[in-house]
Amino acid sequence: MRYYKSFILFSLLALVFVACDTDDLEKDIDALKDRVASVEAQVQRLNDEMNILRVALDGNKTITNYSINGDTYTLTLSNGETLTLTQGEVGDNYPSIDISEDGYWVIAGNKTEWRAKAKDGEDATITPQFKIDENPDADGKKYWWVSYDDSTWKVLENGLAEGENNNPPLINKVEVKDGYFNVTIGGQVYQIPVVEGLECAINAEGLVDGLWTIAGGVEASFSVKVNLADGDLVRVNAPADWNAKVSEYSAGATDVTITLTPPITPSECIIVVEVTHGVNTASDQIKAKTISDSYWAEYQAGFDIKIGDVVINKYDYSNAVLLQNGEKISGDGVYFIAENASIDWTVGGSRVIVISEKKRNTPSLNVVSADPKNKYLVLGSNGNNIGIMLKDIKLKCEEANYSFNVKNEIERFTLDHCIIEMAKDKAFSYFSSGGTINNIWVESCHISVPKSSGSGAINFLNCNKGSYGNVTLYNNIFYCSTPDESLLYLLITAGDGIPVDNVNVERNTVLNLLSNHGSSSGFVKLPIKDNWTVKDNLFWYDMDCLATSGNKGQVTLMSTLPADVSFNKADFENKVFAPENTALQWSYFRKVPEGFTGNAITVSTESPFVDGTLVDTEGKYTLKPEYQGIGAIIE
Predict the structure, then answer these.
(1) Among 51-65, 73-87, 579-593, where is mean pLDDT lowest?
(2) For the chain, what is the largest distance between any 2 Cα atoms, rounded to a whole number of angstroms?
(3) How far apart are alpha carbons 67 and 83 in whole angstroms?
(4) What whole-number distance in Å separates Cα of residue 311 and Cα of residue 305?
(5) All residues at 6 or more sequence positions from 284 whose CB lies less than 8 Å from its CB, including other chains
(6) Residue 197, Cα to own-chain centre: how many angstroms?
(7) How far does CA 555 lie from the centroid of its chain?
(8) CA 338 to chain CA centroid, nearest Å
(9) 581 Cβ neighbours under 8 A, 6+ residues apart
(10) Secondary structure letter of residue 566 according to DSSP
(11) Who has the most CB within 10 Å: 62, 101, 177, 296?
């Protein structure tokens, strides 16, 4: 009986301890919620304060209306923008923020390259934004991070967000007094005028990220929202060669029209509209740029030209030349190829940038190696450099055994909106010399492949030796250019043990190209790694090159799946379309990994193309609406 009582007592004690543990857990959860709420409040407050400071420093906007709800101010600006600001204590571990004497942001004690104050009539366009996140270089502790473009973030070296660092909030005090919204930062008071009804908000159709593009030499206009009273003045400031003028207006007008006739040549400028009411002026501005059909003219005008993830302009890439028909590329340089010209490319290099003179004109660039034995171009032969970048070029590979090899190291190999005509029975690239390419980027290209003489497989990117960083194939169309034929094809392959860090193969279309190459087959013939993606690609065929050999085996998407790699099917979902009588089996892997289920890829027998639009030997088609979002769309 004594034993029974002891058991009951033990059970009761256990329940007490469980209750205590549960109470402690709930307390920990509540504390965690409080910490998360505090972090969110600190980040929100700091970013709100930065936006208020931006308006105060620009000095070209007024407050048309404001309201106060507790400690929160809601401000409506003259350009229609709405800002909020909440006062009150929400913690004291903010990063230090200051402005240098010459008007630049000083963040965490370091002067940046970004202006905080307006200069020469132009707003300071950069307002730093902040967040709190883990710092992997500090054992995962929470640090402040800063971004100057709302996408790229950098940790602040002295920006520990945990505990207290004695940096007060940026704005010490705000108040509305004598017709001004007064913002106190340190010992300095900045003022934003409060003028009821004063508005100046530009509304330009086609405005993208603050940029308005219009045709050169053609009159265009945009409207400006206003609220004019007697005596109000409206002005527009633009370069003289943009010929800007304001429509007639009078008191009571709620909008005015700004009409411009830009120059015919490529040009860009800042257009500023001002509305003056008594002693106060409100303004709004947009960046305007003329549309041009010439990359060469834009380059000469100082415009940016984007190739893949790189921006080219005459300031960073000087001394470009315009090549005429029959000329050659025989070394490093920046080249533009004249409209409809045909140029021989005889020597590779480490810094070869080739761009069409006219947009979407695709002049011919012929791979004709000066080496009579190898007949391919060697990339990176002069050591580490930016690499090879081609835009809007028709690349012909007729005389090469294969087109490209790599030696030493180059930063990138980029093909952007190119037409690539592969040679019969020849790989596009065969990287076999042990070099390094840090970034391979192929985007919005048409890649045509003629029918092979035999039954061998044709390679696009064959990384036989060396090492490779990021490999991206995005929005390309690969197709067999021989009528009523198909062939075996590999998008990417690498030798055993060759390091390839990251692969993304997305939104490509593959027409009449199949993959069947033994036990390690796959369009992407690599052992996959975590975070790789091969998705939203469209595979279509109506000819079966495997039927002639009686081989009705599998067509596979990828090579092996290592045991230590996680596999998320959402990152490898694609669409396959085939004729009703196809006997091929489509699957993720040729050799099914242990414990892996659902290896088969469903094949659809309906057409994804609008009737009459498919020209498979030219890689042309129009997708049905229900299939938008898979495969390539090249404009």
Answers:
(1) 51-65
(2) 108
(3) 11
(4) 6
(5) 61, 78, 79, 200, 201, 202, 224, 272, 273
(6) 40
(7) 32
(8) 29
(9) none
(10) -
(11) 62
Q: Residue with structure tokens 């219009």?
A: 214
Residues 6+ apart with CB under 8 A from 613: 620, 621, 622
The string of pLDDT tens digits covering residues 222-238 is 999 999 999 999 999 99
Question: Is 556 within 8 Å of 542 (Cβ atoms)?
Answer: no
59, two tokens: 């000095």
Cα three-residue angle 104-110-112, rounded to 5 degrees: 35
Tell me the DSSP string of 386-420: SEEEEES-EEE-TT-SSSEEE-SEEEEEEEES-EE
The CB-side HSE value for 138 (13 A sphere, CA atoms) comes to 15
The helix or strand, by DSSP H or E, that contains position 322, with its residue range, turns out to be strand 321-323
- Lookup: tokens for 97: 């923020």
Looking at the chain, how many residues does it have? 635
Residue keyed to tokens 């938008």: 628
Cα distance between residue 496 and residue 304, in whole Å: 41
Tokens standing for residue 424: 């019969």
Strands 255-260 and 220-225, how do they pair?
antiparallel
Residue 286, CB-side half-sphere exposure with 13 Å CA sphere:
24
* Cβ-contact 199, 225 below 8 angstroms: yes
Residue 462, token pair as written in the block = 């064959």
In the prediction, which pLDDT does 326 show?
95
Hey, what's the torsion of the CAs at 444, 445, 451, 454, to 10 degrees? -90
Distance, in Å, from the CA atom of 304 to the CA atom of 151, rounded to the nearest integer, reads: 20
The residue whose two tokens read 């048409």 is 446
Digit-coded pLDDT (tens) for 66-116: 888 877 888 888 888 888 877 755 455 677 787 888 888 888 888 888 888
Nearest to 345 by CA among 377, 384, 391: 377
DSSP secondary structure code for residue 103 in this structure: S
For residue 383, give both structure tokens. Answer: 């050591």
Amino acid occupying residue 446: H
Which amino acid is present at 476? N
Two tokens, residue 357: 């003179």
Outline where 81-222 has alpha helix (H).
Answer: none
Query: Residue type for 416, please?
Result: D
Q: Give the 3-state secondary structure percentages of the chain, helix then strand then coil, rounded to 5.
A: 15, 40, 45
Instruction: Provide the residue type at 146 as one letter.
Output: V
Residue 225 dihedral angles phi and psi, to the nearest 5°: -75, 125
pLDDT tens profile 594-613 = 778 888 899 999 999 999 99
List all residues 6 or more positions away from 532 whose beta carbon is below 8 Å from its beta carbon: 502, 503, 504, 571
Q: Tokens 């003489």 belong to which residue?
A: 453
Q: Which amino acid is at 493?
A: T
pLDDT score for 135: 85
Cross-sheet strand order for the sheet of 268-277:
211-215, 280-291, 268-277, 233-237
- Report how far residue 30's alpha carbon sits from residue 269's, in angstroms, rounded to the nearest whole number: 53
pLDDT band at 254 (very low <50, low <70, confident <90, very high): very high
Taking phi over 0 as left and psi of -120 to 50 as alpha, with beta for the rest, 317 belongs to beta
